[in-house]
Amino acid sequence: MEYTVIESPCKTALYRHNTKWLPFNYDINAYRGCAHQCIYCYAQYSHGYIGDDNFFGSIHAKTNIAEVLRRELPRFGREAVNLGGVTDSYQPAEREYALMPGVLKLLADYKVPAILSTKSPLILRDAELFQRIDREAGAMAALTVTTMDAGIAALIEPGSPPPSARMAAVKELKKAGLTGGVHLMPFIPLLTDSPESLEAVFAAARDAGADYVLVSGLNLRGATRDGFFEAVRQRF
Question: Is the pTM of this model over 0.90?
Answer without folding.
Answer: yes
